[in-house]
TrEMBL record:
It comes from the Bacteria. Keywords: Methyltransferase, Transferase. GO terms for cellular component: cytosol. CDD domains: SpoU-like_RlmB. Residues 1-42 are annotated as: Disordered. SMART domains: SpoU_sub_bind. This is 23S rRNA (Guanosine(2251)-2'-O)-methyltransferase RlmB. InterPro entries: Alpha/beta_knot_MTases (IPR029028), Ribosomal_eL30-like_sf (IPR029064), rRNA_MeTrfase_TrmH (IPR004441), SpoU_MeTrfase (IPR001537), SpoU_subst-bd (IPR013123), tRNA_m1G_MTases_N (IPR029026). The keyword Transferase applies.
Amino acid sequence: MPGNSQRRGAGRRGRSNTAGSGGRIRRSLEGRGPTPKAEDRVYHKAYKAKQEALRRQANRPRKTTRTAVGADWVVGRNPVLEALEVGLPVKQAYVADGAERDDRLRDILKFAAEHSLPLLQVTRAELDRVTGGLVHQGVALQLPAFEYTDVEDVFDAAFEVPSQGLVVALDGVTDPRNLGAIIRSAAAFGAQGVVIPARRSASMTAAAWKTSAGAAARIPVAKVTNLNQTLRKASDAGFTVVGLAGEGETPLSALPGGEGPVLLVVGSEGEGLARLVREHCDALVAIPIASTVESLNASVAASIALYEITQQRT
């Protein structure tokens, strides 16, 4: 009968004699799920590439709905009035619709009218947006970007009056109010300019403008990439480079360089002058102070030194 024959090939057509696994392999894979993607396998290069992309994305600056507000804004009624009175340059003045009138706001409106300063009326929500949510009290000033002078122009101006040539350079002065005060003193004592480094230094922000009491509009300020190279160039050009240092061996009264242009270098109150800056100075001078006081504020020290230079030349 069919199926009972012992002849080779008498079995059911198409049936293989190869032994199966009996479901062993299938059962061993149960519960393991699908094969993970390459980027999810910790040992695969695709995984490392994905993690690196995630790291870069995490470090990327996040977008914000607020407008970024830099240092060229003055907000608040007292700061705005003071900024106007000291002569800060104004790019745009804003006042919020319906802002409550008080003496300060009346003074601001009066100043604007007397000096033909246009005030742009905006909604409070719009003023919130353009100032980045700062507490503006209904008024704000936007200052124009400060235009720094080329340091070569500052040096040239000093050489035009060689017996009176005077430039101030700052090293590590990071407080914008100190910067503004030094600019004010430099202008008061006839300096031809102020030099600041691009790094580790305050810039011409609204606070510096305000503290300078408008002097920043009358005296050039140069920003340099490398202060040490600038000092070396100044020395090669004929400047006497003098650094203020508490441990200086030369007293301020014996300040050298009275016959030619002087470049006075002022360091920060805490750190003083950097080592390389000291090495590029022709002399380190000290201001004699009582032993009970460790140091002077940078702007105060600069004012004293500038006064002494002026007195010696007079």
